[in-house]
Structures are given as C-alpha cells and as structure tokens.
Amino acid sequence: MSNDIEGVPNNTLHNDSASIGSNVSDSIISASSGISDSIIGLENTLESLLSSSTLTSLLQMSLVAMIGALSAYIFNALHWKVVERKKIISSVAVELRAIINDLESISMDYWTKDYIEKNRQDIHIAEIAIKSKVRLISRYIKLIISELNVKKTDQNVQKLDEFSLNIFDLVTGDEFESRDRKSSKPKAQKILNECSDIRVTILSIDLCK
To answer: From the centroid of its chain, how far is CA 185?
Structure first.
C-alpha cells in the first residue's frame, strides 16, 4: 500500500515535518536566548545599584536629608524658645513697671504727709500696700533676671538688684508705721528718683532683650 496521502508524496510530508520542527526549535532557542539576555541585564542592573559607589551615594544622600531635617527641627525649637523667652520678659517688664508706678504714687503720698490719728485707717491701708508692692517688686525682679540669661555682673542686673534692696530700705525705713512719723520731702524725692531711674533700666532691657 502506498504511504502517499491524497496525492502528496510521502517524502514531501517528511521534509515539511522536519522543516516545522526546525522552525519550532529555532523559536524556542531564540526565546530562551532573549529571556537569558533579559535576566543577565536585570542582574547587571541590580549589581550596579548595589555596587559600593551607588550604595555610598544613597547613604550619603540619606544622611544629608536626615541632618537637614534635624537641623530644621533644632532651629525651630530654639527659635520658639527665644520667642517665648522674649514674651515672658516683655510681660514681666510691663507688670514690674506698673507695680513701681503704684509704689511710687502711694509712697509719695505717704511720705509727704504727717501721721494724723483720724486718718489712721487710710494710713494703715497705705502701709500694707507699700509692703505688698515692695515684696512684689522683689519677686518680679528675680523673675526677670532669671529670664535674661546674663551674667550677674551685667550692669542692668546690678541695677535691678540694687533697686530691690534700696527701695525697701527707702520706703519702709525711718518712722514707717510710726505714729510719730513726719513728712519728709527729701525721702519722697529719693523715692521718685529711684523709681524713675529703674523704669528707664527696665525699658532698656525690654527693648534690647
């Protein structure tokens, strides 16, 4: 029996099959080669990324970024600390000047008049107010000095310390709280001078802090 199929010679079929098999084999080899080339290319890329120079560059960039962020944080923290300190000094300076004004007014009235028995209640109230104002002045001066963050030898600090001591001796000395107290215009003038001078000092501190 002939092996020809519908008039096609057997050797022709054999040759066609061989040709098809050869083409499939070539395609597989070509695809495999392409895949292999892609894998090799990927490996080369990864090796390049992980090479010492590239890794060092990445670490350097990361370090620079972290240092920049940390520097910005520290700057902002210090900036706000300075801002808050200035606010505190300004607030204390305003309060201190107001208390000194009150002390000056009360003390001037107190030391320009003799003790009068019929006014003893008003005089007693004035004496309490004077002692209270002097105490507050001392506390506010300590607070403002602590916020100034300067050496104790600073001229303004010395003036504040001296005023705290001098004003106490000045307004509560001599015949203070005595029924024998007489008016003293020299004392009143000294009180006025001390208060005026320290107000200028406090103002200069508030402006130059």
So the answer is: 50
Global confidence as pTM: 0.60
Secondary structure (H, E, C), 66-117: HHHHHHHHHHHHHHHHHHHHHHHHHHHHHHHHHHHHHHHHHHHHHHCCCCCH
Cβ atoms of 89 and 206 within 8 Å: the answer is yes
Angstrom distance (rounded) from CA 65 to CA 131: 59
The residues spanned by each domain of the chain are 10-68, 85-208
Rounded Cα–Cα distance for residues 119 and 99 (Å): 24
pLDDT tens-digit series, residues 124-152: 999 999 999 999 999 999 888 887 766 65
| Mean of pLDDT over the chain | 75
pLDDT of residue 92: 84
CA-to-CA dists, residue 161 to 105, 150, 209, angstroms: 21, 13, 18
